[in-house]
Design goal:
The complex is a heterotrimer of chains A (about 180), B (about 200) and C (about 200).
Chain A lengths: L7 H11 L2 E6 L6 H8 L5 E4 L4 H12 L3 E7 H4 L7 H6 L3 E6 L12 H13 L3 E5 L2 H18 L2 E6 L1 H4 L8
Parallel strand pairs in A: 1-2, 1-3, 3-4, 4-6, 5-6
Helix pairs in contact in A: 1-2, 1-7
Chain B lengths: L4 H8 L8 E4 L3 H9 L5 E3 L7 H11 L5 E6 H6 L2 H9 L4 E7 L2 E2 L5 E2 L8 H8 L3 E5 L2 H13 L4 E6 L15 H13 L7
Parallel strand pairs in B: 1-2, 1-3, 3-4, 4-8, 7-8
Antiparallel strand pairs in B: 5-6
Helix pairs in contact in B: 1-2, 3-5
Chain C lengths: L9 H9 L6 E5 L3 H8 L6 E3 L7 H11 L4 E7 H6 L2 H9 L4 E7 L2 E2 L5 E2 L8 H8 L3 E5 L5 H9 L5 E6 L16 H13 L1 H6 L3
Parallel strand pairs in C: 1-2, 1-3, 3-4, 4-8, 7-8
Antiparallel strand pairs in C: 5-6
The chains are: A alpha/beta (about 180), B alpha/beta (about 200), C alpha/beta (about 200).
Chain lengths: ~180, ~200, ~200
């Protein structure tokens, strides 16, 4: 890894460890790639690759019933797939944490990403989630820390949005 | 000796009949289809992962005289898996599906998909009620999939195992969804300002 | 007038599966008829009954099976519910928990909404789909004679397995345990019974 590689993915991984996260499920996204790799390399964490994001909501509900903590990693486009499933943690007052890598909000190149990216915070709030946002690298780990605390200490559903400004927008012109 | 997706797509769309309609799934599949020719009968799905099989179904149902070909990747197909049951239930005889299966999420870092493990998409399609399905790992088998996808009574479902490799992104195609929709409809239905 | 996909009496099948129920068996009921079937056998803190979140039963069972590898997890659901979460079969097979069994009560229709036919009334065969997804085993049963085989498969430790039971359409009276509609109460009872009150409700990680 080069010296100028961002350190926030490693910090998020440390936060997962600190909060005893045992189940990580995801539909992959480039913004989550390093975190996913670190989790895959950790024998204490089981990683499930989902065919669609809504499966992660039920999987984490089942894991919570079974006594383990988890987190769902997804891209903002996947938020739309989870909506009805989010009734489950909401109505059962189960803790739920998702970390969302944002597309469609900051210098987006692909028009198709824009509608869901723009709607993501409103849609999550409409389903009763607390929404945190990290715009700068130094905010990422703190936001995830706070999300795990309010979810697992206070029984809430929380989404942490990692802004496209933080992750860096794809620009195909650069290639 | 894995197959290369750009060779697969150029074989699949070689001597393309002019009335063929192609729906291309998001990401590399759209790039693949465009790499042969930016044909107005192509509809590139630029997002909405998991929706391309349903888009192809809707098109096939409304255009029963035209052959509809869906070309997509394994990640997109897995996200829309339930749609295979809906397609088989509707049974459009003019629909062929080809999944370019690199067993990876190629756009996001090459993470493995479920097809790298035990999942057999063709067997799932057969279980959903597709009459004819096939998996190709060799050029010869792929040839049979092309013929099936383009001409066998549908709905038919073929998986072509391709290498996980980085291919050039094809930029020579419109990205504006509104324009693509208009170009596709005008090519298919003619220019009209009449409402449907 | 649709008459359903089979002849099996779903109450009798539920009773056959839950007879002499082992202490380590955790059961998830999918919304609608499957949850009614499960509740009819009486309340248990080791049942988790869904009244919504259609399509989620199998993945809830997956998460539970992964978190509790020493326990046995049975998901009972319907064909409409399973079809809505079909991709979950691939995810389950990929994770391959040996302690998970899924029973699909297949009546071939959306019984709750006016008995419209589902895809299994036509060509879709969920056992074949599960095999294609990579389940260790799958079978379809159509008669009482096959209850024992279904029970052995679902309650063994050779999962993930899926059994499709071709069941008759059934009318239900009032739910036997309507308190399960209270999600937090049900989830907390389940966790306290399974994990103990200290781990479930008191311990701070």
């Amino acid at each position: 890894m080069s010296d100028d590689a961002p350190t926030w993915p490693a910090e998020l991984y440390e936060m997962l460890r600190r909060h005893n996260i045992r189940q990580v499920c995801h539909v992959p996204d480039a913004g989550h790639a390093e975190l996913i790799d670190r989790c895959e390399a950790d024998n204490e964490i089981n990683v499930t690759t989902l065919t669609s994001e809504e499966e992660g909501v039920g999987l984490l509900a089942g894991a919570w019933l079974g006594g383990q903590r988890g987190v769902l990693l997804m891209q903002s486009s996947g938020v739309g797939n989870t909506i009805n499933a989010l009734a489950l943690p909401n109505i059962c007052k189960m803790p739920f944490v998702t970390i969302v890598s944002m597309r469609g909000e900051w210098g987006e190149f692909v028009p198709w990403q824009v509608p869901m990216g723009q709607a993501t915070p409103a849609v999550l709030e409409a389903m009763g989630l607390i929404v945190y946002r990290a715009d700068k690298p130094e905010e990422a780990a703190d936001s995830v820390d706070a999300a795990f605390k309010i979810a697992y200490d206070s029984g809430k559903s929380v989404a942490v949005l990692l802004s496209q400004k933080l992750i860096g927008a794809k620009d195909f012109r650069a290639k | 000796m894995a197959l290369h997706r750009r060779e697969v797509i150029s074989e699949l769309l070689r001597d393309r009949p002019d009335d063929l309609l192609v729906v291309a799934g998001l990401g590399t599949a759209s790039s693949d289809v465009a790499s042969v020719e930016d044909h107005p009968g192509n509809f590139y799905v630029g997002g909405v992962m998991g929706q391309s099989p349903a888009i192809a179904l809707g098109l096939a149902l409304t255009q029963p005289e035209r052959r509809v070909l869906l070309v997509t990747g394994d990640g997109d197909m897995l996200m829309g898996l339930g749609t295979l049951a809906s397609i088989a239930d509707q049974g459009p005889r003019n629909l062929g599906i080809v999944v370019m299966d690199n067993e990876s999420y190629g756009e996001t870092g090459g993470q493995k998909t479920a097809t790298r493990g035990r999942v057999d998409l063709a067997a799932i399609a057969a279980g959903c009620g597709f009459g004819q399905t096939a998996v190709a790992t060799t050029a010869k088998q792929a040839q049979a999939v092309y013929e099936m996808a383009l001409s066998a009574p549908g709905p038919v479902f073929g998986v072509i195992k391709v290498a996980m490799e980085s291919v050039p992104r094809v930029m020579g195609r419109p990205r504006d969804g509104g324009y693509l929709k208009d170009r596709f409809r005008e090519n298919l239905l003619g220019y009209t300002q009449e409402p449907l | 007038m649709p008459v359903g996909n089979g002849k099996i009496d779903r109450t009798a099948l539920t009773q056959a599966l839950l007879r002499d129920r082992a202490d380590d068996l955790l059961v998830v009921g999918g919304l609608g008829s499957a949850t009614y079937d499960l509740m009819a056998e009486g309340p248990s803190p080791r049942n988790f009954c869904l009244w919504g979140a259609m399509g989620q039963a199998a993945v809830i069972g997956l998460g539970l099976a992964l978190a509790q590898p020493e326990k046995r997890v049975l998901v009972m659901t319907g064909d409409g519910e399973m079809l809505m979460g079909l991709g979950a079969l691939a995810t389950v097979a990929d994770q391959a928990p040996c302690n998970l069994g899924i029973l699909v009560m297949d009546n071939g229709l959306y019984a709750e909404t006016g008995r419209q036919p589902t895809a299994t009334a036509g060509l879709a065969d969920l056992a074949k789909v599960a095999e294609g997804a990579g389940f260790r085993a799958a079978m379809t049963i159509a008669s009482t004679d096959e209850f024992d085989a279904a029970r052995d498969m679902l309650l063994g430790r050779n999962g993930p397995v899926l059994v499709v039971a071709k069941v008759a359409v059934q009318d239900y009276g009032p739910p036997a345990d309507p308190a399960t509609r209270d999600g937090p109460q049900q989830a907390n009872r389940f966790r306290v019974d399974l994990l103990g009150e200290y781990d479930a409700m008191i311990r701070i990680d």
